[in-house]
Amino acid sequence: MTSAAEPTASAAPDSTYSLVVVSNRLPIEIEVSEDGTEGWRTSPGGLVTALEPMMRSSDGAWVGWPGIADRSFDPFENDGISIVPVRLSESELEDYYEGFSNDTIWPLYHDVIAPPRYHREWWEAYVRVNRRFADAAASAAAPGATVWVHDYQLQLVPRMLRDARPDLVIGFFNHIPFPPYGIYAQLPWRKQILDGLLGADLIGFQRLADAGNFSRAVRRLYGYPTRGVAIDVPAPDGKHRRVIAKHFPISIDAAAYEELARRPEIQERARQIREDLGNPQTIMLGVDRLDYTKGIAHRIKAFGELLADGSLSVEDVTLVQVASPSRERVGPYIALRDEIELAVGRLNGDFSTISHTAISYHHHGYPREEMVALYLAADVMLVTALRDGMNLVAKEYVAVRFDRDGVLVLSEFAGAADELKQAVLINPHDIDGVKAAILRAVAMPRQERLRRMRSLRRKVFDNDVDAWSSSFLRTLTEGAAVRPGIPDTLAGALKDLSRADNILVALDFDGTLAPHVDKPEDARAVAGTREAVQRLLDLDGVRVAFVSGRALVSLRHVSQPQTDVLLAGSHGIEVQLDTPEIELDLVTEELEQLDALARVLERISGSIDGTWIERKPAGLALHTRLATPRKAAAALKAARGELGTLLPGLTVRDGKDVIEFAVRASTKGDALARLRRHAGADRVFYAGDDTTDEDAFAVLRPGDVGLKIGAGDSLAGYRVRGPEDVPLVLGLIADARAAVAAEREAAAGA
Ligand code: GDG
C-alpha cells in the first residue's frame, strides 16, 4: 500500500509553482523505522492519484501538515511533486484539528448528528492555523497561479489568500456536506466562514443540495445577489467579483480498483475470506471510518432484529464490519467506539455459534489489497450513513465488481445516492426499511443483480476521479478565472494597434456584442455598443465589420448596423461590403455546382411524397419530415448516391429529417480574410466567443489583436468576461486612435 521515498533536498520551492494544492494532510507522512531513521511514506489516496499527473506536468506543489506535531521540515521534492510542509504544534492539533474541525464543523455540517461544541479558543486556533496555510500557499504560488484548497479544516484560506495575492486563481472543494441554513446558523462564526470561502473563484461541493445550501446562507447572511451557480460578491474597487458555487461529485480511480480486483492473488484471498467465515451463503460487508455519521449502529440494529425474528440465520449470513480507527482523541469518537463494540459484543453473544460468528468485527486499518478482496467476497455491501459528503466506499465496491455481481444497499443521505440510483436506496433511520432492504438484497435474483450493477458501474467509470478533478480545474481556470474588467496587457496591445494606418475592427455578434438568448431573433447588443461602434466609424482609417454564422438577413435584423458597417453572414458565404445588396460570394464553378445540385434534388423531391427542398445561400437542404420512413430513407439514399458521384466535393451535413449539401465550406477565417482585403487594413482586431471564431483567430497576423469573450480554450491572445466588457474595449480603441490622430496633427502642425 505504501512506498517509501527519499526526499531530494535540492528542490526547495521558489515561488514558481503554477498549481498549488492545499490540504490539511500532505499526501505523504513521516515513517520512523526501528533504528530511528526517518523516511517519507506515500499514502496513495484518491486525491493524490487524481492530481499527481497534473501536479507533475504543471509544476505543482502540495502544501499540508505532514502528520507529526511540533516538527518543522524544509520543503522538498517527493516523487516528482514538491512538498511544502506546514508545522502544527500539539496544542494547535487539539484546538484547530480535533477541536474546531472535528468537534465543531464536522458535527455541524453533518446535520448535528452529534452536538457541535463551540469554543472560542478553538476558533482562534482555527484562524491562526488557516493563516499559516494561506501564507505557505501564497509564498509557493507563482504569479497568476491556480491554488486549489481542500476541505472544511481550511475554509478561511481562500479569503486570506485573495487578500494577500489578488493575482491568484483560487478554488475550494468541500468534501463534506454543507448544511441547511437552519443548522448552519448555529455557528457563532457563520459570517466569517462564509466570507473565508467567498475568497475563492470557484467553490465546489459534493451535491447540488450542498451548493444550494451554501448560496442560500450567503443570501441570508450577506444579501449578495445569487443567480444559478453565480454569486456576485462586492469587490474593494466597488465592482463585483463573480464566485461560482457548484457541485462536482468526487469519485475514485475506478480502473485502478478493477485492476486490483482482477489480480489472481486477490481473488484467491476473497475465496479464502469466504472459507474462513465458514462459507456462508451471504456475506454482508460494512467498511467505514469509525464515525457517528456512518450509521454503523443502525446497520447492526437492523441485522440483529433480522436474526432475532428468524428472517436470517448466522449459518446463512455473516456481517463483516471493518471500522477503521479514527479521531481517537475526540470525545464523541471515544464514546462511539464503546457504543458500537457493546452492540457487536451483545449481538455476537446472543446469536453467534461455535462455528458461525454473526458479526466479524475489525477495528483496524487494512491494506488496500485486503479491502478489495473483502469487496470481492461481499455479496451485499451496506452503506447506511446518516449523512455523508459522498461515500467513496460505495463507489469502490462497484468498481471492484467486474463480475457485475453483488448488491449495494446505499443510504439516500450519502452524496453517492445522487448518482448511484440503481443501488437499493434506504433511509437508515427507518430500521424496518433497512431490514426490508437487507432481505431484498439477500434474495435478489441474479438477473436483477447483474442489471443493477452494470448500470452502477457505468456511472462510476464514466465519472472517475480524473474526470472529477479535470472538470473542477477546467471550470476554475476557464470560467471563474476570467476576471471582470479589461486586462492592462490588452489595453497596451490596443494602443499599439491603433498606430496602424488602416484598422479593421471585426466583431462576432452572438455572445460577443449580444448575450446569448433562447430565441435567436431576440438577441440584441448590450447597451453602449452602438455608441462605441459609432465612435469608431467616425474616425479616419478605421472600419468596423460584424461577422456571424447567421444568414446575413438575420444578422442585419438583430444587429441593426449603421450603414458603414461591413457585414459577413453565413460564416462569410454572404457579404455586404459598402453595397446596398447582399453579395453571394460564389465563383462561377460554385454557381454551376449549385445549379447541378438543385436539379438533382428537385428531381428527387418531385418524385417522392412528403419531401421538399430549401434553398440556402450556398447550398440546398432536402427535408423529409413529412415522408413515410421508407420514402424518407429512399430519398436520402438517392440524394447521397447521385450527388456522391456527380459532385463529390460537396459538404454534407446530416440533420434530423434533413440533409444539407453545400458548395462552399466557408469559415469565419475566410470571412475575415475577405474583410481585411476589402478594408485594406494593416492591422485587425477580432472579437468572438464561439469555437467558430477560432477560425478567425487562426488567421490573425503579428500585431493583430484577438479577443476571446468568456471561458474556453482559445487561440486569441486576450480575454474578457462577457459582452458587457466589449463596448469598453471598443471605447479604448477609439480613445487610443483619437490620441494618435491628435499626436499626428500636432506633429504635422509643428
Ligand atoms: C470524506 C467524506 C467523502 C477506510 N478504511 C480503510 C480504508 N478506508 C478508505 C475507504 C475509502 C476512504 O477510506 C473513506 O472514504 P469515504 O468517502 O467513505 O469517507 P470519509 O473518510 O468520511 O471521507 C466523504 C470523502 O471525504 C471524499 O471526498 O466521500 O463523504 O466524509 O477510500 O476505502 N482504506 C484502507 N484501509 C482501511 O482500513 N486501505
Summarize the structure.
Helix content is 42%, strand content 21%. The chain has 24 helices and 31 strands. The longest helix is centred in the last third of the chain and has 24 residues, at 726-749.
Explain the overall architecture.
- This protein has 24 helices and 31 strands.
- The protein is an alpha/beta fold.
- The chain has a 10-stranded mixed beta sheet, sandwiched between helices. Strands 24-23-22-21-20-29-30-31 form an 8-stranded mixed beta sheet, sandwiched between helices.
- The radius of gyration is 32 Å and the shape is globular.
- The N terminus is likely disordered.
- GDP-alpha-D-glucose binds next to β14, β15, α12 and α13.
Largest sheet: 10 strands, mixed
Distance between the termini: 80 Å
How helix-rich are the residues, as a percent range? 40-55%
The number of helices is: 24
Ligand types:
GDP-alpha-D-glucose
Average pLDDT level: 91
Family: In the C-terminal section; belongs to the trehalose phosphatase family.
Protein name: Bifunctional alpha,alpha-trehalose-phosphate synthase (UDP-forming)/trehalose-phosphatase
InterPro entries: Glyco_trans_20, HAD-like_sf, HAD-SF_hydro_IIB, HAD_sf, Trehalose_PPase
Pfam families: Glyco_transf_20 (PF00982), Trehalose_PPase (PF02358)
Task: Describe how the helices and strands are arranged.
Elements: E1 3-5, E2 17-25, E3 28-32, E4 38-42, H1 46-57, E5 60-65, E6 76-78, E7 81-85, H2 90-109, H3 120-140, E8 141-150, H4 157-164, E9 169-173, H5 181-184, H6 190-197, E10 202-205, H7 208-222, E11 226-227, E12 230-234, E13 240-247, H8 254-262, H9 264-276, E14 282-289, H10 296-308, E15 317-324, H11 331-351, E16 359-362, H12 368-377, E17 380-383, H13 392-400, E18 407-411, E19 424-426, H14 431-443, H15 446-462, H16 465-480, H17 488-497, E20 503-508, H18 529-537, E21 542-547, H19 552-559, E22 566-569, E23 574-576, E24 583-584, H20 588-607, E25 612-616, E26 619-623, H21 629-646, E27 651-655, E28 658-662, H22 668-679, E29 683-688, H23 694-698, E30 705-709, E31 718-720, H24 726-749
Parallel strand pairs: 2-5, 2-8, 5-7, 8-9, 9-10, 10-13, 14-15, 14-17, 15-16, 17-18, 18-19, 20-21, 20-29, 21-22, 29-30, 30-31
Antiparallel strand pairs: 1-4, 3-4, 6-7, 11-12, 12-13, 22-23, 23-24, 25-26, 26-28, 27-28
Helix pairs in contact: 1-16, 2-3, 3-4, 8-13, 9-12, 10-11, 10-14, 17-24, 18-24, 20-21
The structure holds GDP-alpha-D-glucose (GDG).
GDP-alpha-D-glucose is lined by residues 175-176, 250, 287, 289, 322, 324, 365-368, 371, 388-393, 396.
